Amino acid sequence: MRGAMETAFLFPGQGAQAVGMGVEIARSFPAAAAIFQKADNIIGFDLSKLCFEGPIEQLNTTTMSQPAIFVTSVAILEVVRTNPATSNISPDVTAGLSLGEYTALYAAGVIGFEDALLLVKKRGEAMQAAADAAGGSMVGIIGLDETTVRQLCAQAGDGELLLPVNFNCPGQIVVSGTKAACLRAEQFAAKYGAMKTVRLDVAGAFHTELMSSAADALSEALSYCRISDPSGIRTIASTNAQYYGSAEEVAQGLVKQLTSPILWQKCMERLVADGVKKFYEIGPGRVLTGLMRRIDRKARIVNVSSLDSLMELVSAQPFTA
Predict the structure, then answer these.
(1) 169-211 confidence digits (pLDDT tens)
(2) Buried b (16+ CB within 10 A) or exposed e, 126-151
(3) Is 219 a catalytic residue?
(4) Which one is catalytic: 73, 207, 260, 305?
(5) Residue 176 three-state SS
(6) Which of 104, 176, 266, 267 could join 138 in a cystine, given CB atoms 3.0 to 4.6 angstroms apart?
(7) DSSP characters for 39-107?
């Protein structure tokens, strides 16, 4: 491993969106406002207004939520980077949950802002189109281990597609497949000992073969994108919990994401095993903060998602004894 790694920046994925995200930070920090304005100019519509004011129905769509979360995360990151009180906080490694991996690669200097934003926009559009064509759904299964979830999928699938695809933390695994199979999974889960199930508000069966047309579209978009070989700051790939070593691996990993499981728990366990002691979740919501506390209770994690949390970081020395 190249040198010691102590600090990781983590970036959230789809589902972290909320109306009003980033608005107070943009009003308080010109650096954040500039990122929102730059994004509006690049994609040609008022994404900032959608983040700040909604409506939630539009913000929640796959097409809009993905660029919205990316831009909000980058805006918060820019404040951390440029504010004199926090500019000394820098990552040795970055990670992102599915969509968040684009922010992680941007933060590591592997993909530029414009390329990353246009890729994320294309990704959202392609995933929505694939979902419209193939249907599908996703369900969170709470309280079961991987072996039991696979047994549940085998029965509930009943010959249809149903697979565990998001290994988030101990006792939280998301399954993805046809709508009928997901409905049966909800009905059968209690029999297998699940505490509860949660239907995800997503357009389709993400991270399965039903997203293959989206993977093809993303692969073509990536061929026009400038990707640098990782150097300095490292980024861990969410599909295999390995560090990216080349631009080619990055492009392959981003395409693979769409049709493959996301191994978030393994990624975080790898970072802890490799010596990371400080984690910062940067972006809207608190999903990754909650997952980390389930993965490793000893891990020190700071959530930077709101003006209050940002001001707390600015005004205090983080991780003081």
Answers:
(1) 999 999 999 999 999 999 999 999 999 999 998 889 999 999 9
(2) bbbbbbeebebbbbbbebbeeebbee
(3) no
(4) 207
(5) strand
(6) 176
(7) HHHHHTS-HHHHHHH--HHHHTSHHHHHHHHHHHHHHHHHHHHHSTTTTT---SEEEESTTHHHHHHHH
Which one of the listed residues 73, 98, 238, 306 is annotated catalytic?
98
pLDDT of residue 2: 52
Give yes or no for a cis peptide into 91 (omega within 30° of 0): no
* Residue positions counted in the chain: 321
- CA 242, CA 184: separation in Å to the nearest integer? 34
Dihedrals phi, psi of 279, to nearest 5 degrees: -120, 135
100-107 vs 62-82: helix axis angle to the nearest 10? 30
Question: Terminal CA-to-CA distance of the chain, rounded, Å?
Answer: 28
308: Cβ contacts below 8 Å, ≥ 6 apart: none
Amino acid identity at 235 = T
Does residue 98 carry a catalytic annotation? yes
Contact 91, 7 (CB under 8 A): yes
Sign of CA dihedral 171, 172, 178, 184: positive
The CA distance from 162 to 144, in Å, is 16
Note the pLDDT tens digit of each residue in 266-312: 999 999 999 999 999 999 999 999 999 999 999 999 999 999 999 99
In 3D space, the residue among 136, 199, 194 whose CA is nearest the CA of residue 162 turns out to be: 136
CA distance 237 to 96: 8
